[in-house]
Recover the amino acids of this structure.
DNA sequence: CTGCACGCTCAAGTCGACTTGAGCGCAAGC
DNA sequence: GCTTGCGCTCAAGTCGACTTGAGCGTGCAG
């Protein structure tokens, strides 16, 4: 079965203009055209699902997404880099989550100023920063 | 102890121009000025550490970061939203990580086209998308 | 046969978060 | 006394990822 650009857009929650843009930059070409009209098939929907998965939330740039989904075996190291970057981000997001949880559970009115626990942690971060760039 | 703008920038791996920008948008004001020259103290470094933690990788916009770090008790729900968004992102990043791991371990030359396991998963995602937007 | 929905192209505009450039001041060292 | 380094302001430029607008074509319901 074939889908029009607006159907694809609707089903994936993506703007029509974004799909035209993906075509323009050769990230996702339609299966074909009826006259001048783009038509998309299953294969393209698969690819779009992958693109969406890797690209949403600014997880990866479109260029990186394209590189990651390119043909093998050119791309092993590219994919490894992507995965490592994703892992680093998960770590950082967990740190952020811990901080936010603390802000929500801390009994102080303004934890950023008043909480001794948070203060100790920030002192550590700041000291590390101050020490870490000593040689530069 | 007081730090100059270039010291702060160096220690945190942030550009001087970014710090001036943070001042301009009232996200991080210097502790004071010697003449026209910005000086930063411990308190500002603490705040910068927090900003950095929440904002890097496009985790949160500067506006959201500012809102999250604002005085209480205005901000409880803002912080909750931030935390929920962070959690959702962690989930999505994990999905992306799983995909990338699969691409790295799958024995097929071009898993996106050839791997039956991946194909099954993508079919599911696509079917969900096609079904999920039925009422719209 | 006249709207209206939907599609198309191409060029220009937008947004956040900075960066860059022009033009200036001030202190230290050769 | 002049260059070098660091700092300042203010306006304009940049980048990615789209979005918007102008202007056009096509098919079909009323």
């Amino acid at each position: 079965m074939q889908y029009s650009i607006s159907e694809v857009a609707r089903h994936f929650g993506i703007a029509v203009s974004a799909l035209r843009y993906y075509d323009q930059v050769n990230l996702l070409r339609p299966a074909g055209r009826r006259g001048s009209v783009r038509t998309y098939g299953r294969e393209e929907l698969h690819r779009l699902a992958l693109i969406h998965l890797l690209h949403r939330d600014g997880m990866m740039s479109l260029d990186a997404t394209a590189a990651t989904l390119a043909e093998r075996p050119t791309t092993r190291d590219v994919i490894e880099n992507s995965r490592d970057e994703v892992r680093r981000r998960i770590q950082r997001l967990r740190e952020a989550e811990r901080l936010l949880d603390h802000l929500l559970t801390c009994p102080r009115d303004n934890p950023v100023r008043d909480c001794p626990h948070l203060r100790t942690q920030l002192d550590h971060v700041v000291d590390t920063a101050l020490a870490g760039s000593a040689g530069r």
